[in-house]
Every structure is written in C-alpha cells, then in structure tokens.
Amino acid sequence: HNELNQALQSNEVWYSFELFPPKTEKGREALRRKLNNLAELEPLIVDITWGAGGSSNTTSLRICKRAQQLHGLNTMLHLTCMSMTREELKQVLQSAKEKGIQNILALRGDVPQGGKKVDNGLNYAVDLVKFIKNIHKDYFGICVAGYPEGHGEAESFEKDLFYLKQKVDAGADMIITQMFFDPNIFLNYKKKCREIGIKCPIIPGIMPIMTYSGFMRMTKFTKVTVPKEITEGLEKVKDDKVKVVDFGVSTCVKMCQQLILDGVEGIHIYCLNQYKPVERIIKGLSLRSSRYRRSYPWRRSTIQKRRG
Length: 308
Ligand code: FAD
Hints:
Layout: H1 2-11, E1 14-19, H2 25-40, E2 45-48, H3 57-69, E3 75-80, H4 86-98, E4 103-107, H5 125-136, E5 141-146, H6 157-169, E6 174-179, H7 183-195, E7 202-206, H8 212-222, H9 228-237, H10 241-261, E8 266-270, H11 276-284
Parallel strand pairs: 1-2, 1-8, 2-3, 3-4, 4-5, 5-6, 6-7, 7-8
Helix pairs in contact: 5-6, 9-10, 10-11
Residues 49-50, 52, 78, 80, 105, 107-110, 124-126, 145, 151, 153-154, 159-160, 163, 167, 176, 178, 205 line the site of flavin-adenine dinucleotide (FAD).
Organism: Anaeramoeba flamelloides
Family: Belongs to the methylenetetrahydrofolate reductase family.
Protein name: methylenetetrahydrofolate reductase (NADH)
C-alpha cells in the first residue's frame, strides 16, 4: 500500500461522476437529493449524458445548471450529433454557454430505434468536435469517447484508433473510455494510443457493478470482456443484493488501485445516479477531494455557487 499512497500523493488523482437524466419526476427528485450527496464528495467534475433520441435533453441542460449553481460543481454536457440538425446543435451549444457549462463530451451517438439520421447533419464525433471549435473556438473544453476493446461498428481496432486520433487532432482535450473490467485491456489501449501519437489524458471509464441484472444488461449491450474471476464471483452472490454491491465496490477498488499505480490522472465513474457505492469507492481508494486540484483540461464553470 505504500506504493499506492505514493502514487496517490504524487499524481493527485482526480475523479469525475457521470449521471443520466431521469425520465420521471420521481427520478428527478431522487437525483436532486443524490446530487447533494455526490457534491459533498467534491468531484472535479460531474457530467450528464445526452439522450440521442432527444427526449431528456432539456433535463440534461437543467441538471448541469443546477449542479453548477446550487453545488458549485464544474460540469460537462454530453452531446450527440447523429440525429440532430446543425441548427439544433448550435442552439444547444448556445444554451450550454448561457448556463455557464464549459465542457462538452462530443459524441456521434446512435440513431435511436425508429429514428433516422438527419439530412445534411454531422456523421461522426470528429465532425462535432470541428463544429464546436469552429463556432466557439476554445471556449469549451472538449472530451471524446474511446473504446479500449474497439467500437462495435469499427472496421478494425486500428481503424478505430486512427479515427480517435482524428478527434484529438481536431481539438479534443481529453479521452474518456468505455467501461472495461480488465485493467490490462485499458493499459494496452493507452499504450497503443501513445504509439500513434495521441498525447492527451486518457481517462478510464469505470462502471461499478451495482445490480446483477444491470451489470448483465450493460455488458451484453457493450460486449465488453468480463474476466472469469468477476463472472464467477458475481454468480456466487447474485441472489443477495447487498452482497452484489459489496462485490461491485471491492472489484472496482481493486481495479482502480491497479490503474492508479499505473499513473492514470483521473478516474471517471459511471455512477448510474447512485451515491452510497460511489462514496465507498472514493473512500476505499483514499482519494482526496478533487475540488481544488488543478483543473486542466477541464474548464472551470463561469457561474459561481449561489448558496450553500
Ligand atoms: P465516433 O467517434 O464518431 O465513432 C463511431 C464509429 O465510426 C466508430 O466505429 C469509428 O471507428 C467510426 N468512425 C469514426 N470516425 C470516422 C470517419 N471519419 N469515417 C469513417 N468511420 C469513422 N451515447 C449517447 O447517446 N449519449 C451519451 O451521453 C453517451 N455518452 C457516452 C460516454 C462515453 C464515455 C462513451 C464511451 C460513450 C457514450 N455514448 C453515449 C455512446 C456513443 O454515443 C456510442 O458508442 C456511439 O456508437 C459512438 O459514438 P462516438 O462518439 O464514439 O463515435
């Protein structure tokens, strides 16, 4: 643990929390309470996902605004371009700017079921990065997504890396990855990125296992590799909700410890709008508050905390 302590102290490992906009008023109310608790853990940034279908998008903007104004947090808005017109994208960026949001996770997204691609729209995340840069220059900090096991539709792993580099060359400041459950997969990916000249921070996206069904659904959907120890460990406790969370927390802490030892700058947690397991992970890792850390490459909020 000495080595880990050293790594923690010298690297100032920060953490960010990803949340999604709830679909119901009850869910939104619950998130408001959770946000209160999550803010006390003082993450460097919270980011809110974007519904490629468009339904929850005003909620995403509102949650960002609330996180900034009530909790003084820095925020990042996810934005997908595939099923939005250029005009709509322009409006969202303007609205984000007016709300003081200074970071965007620029994504392609997927065409929602029953939806269609817009005419004369943007086809890939790289086009959105260029679009944002073109209109807003360096106002927004820009993140993009990376896939340690390759994106599902990619022609090949190498081609996917090539397109990732294009996103960075177009102006992305940082990469946040898809979830993975074997740290070696991430470390190998990072090495390959460096080999082709990607220099920006590459931040591991970590999804703690919180429920058995949720984990099965997510891993099936994303097709990520699950190591045998995790499958076997989880099968043993799957009928006990409390034990599943315990297992998820300890697995996550172990994985993050390896990543920290290897020198990651930050850890991005897919919180799934939960608080308790996230708190246990941050405390289990002995991570110190991220609030006053150096913020690069995130941009600080322009809106200051109003109360609290
Ligand atoms: P791109 O980088 O555009 O890549 C998409 C595919 O096209 C890849 O296979 C790539 O290899 C290929 N490609 C890229 N550029 C080119 C090019 N110029 N020519 C030909 N092929 C190319 N989805 C949501 O709907 N909302 C969210 O909030 C959201 N948040 C996410 C957060 C993270 C951290 C991650 C990892 C994913 C998230 N997603 C979200 C999912 C994401 O939208 C999907 O994975 C989507 O399929 C790909 O988006 P992308 O930005 O990675 O696409």
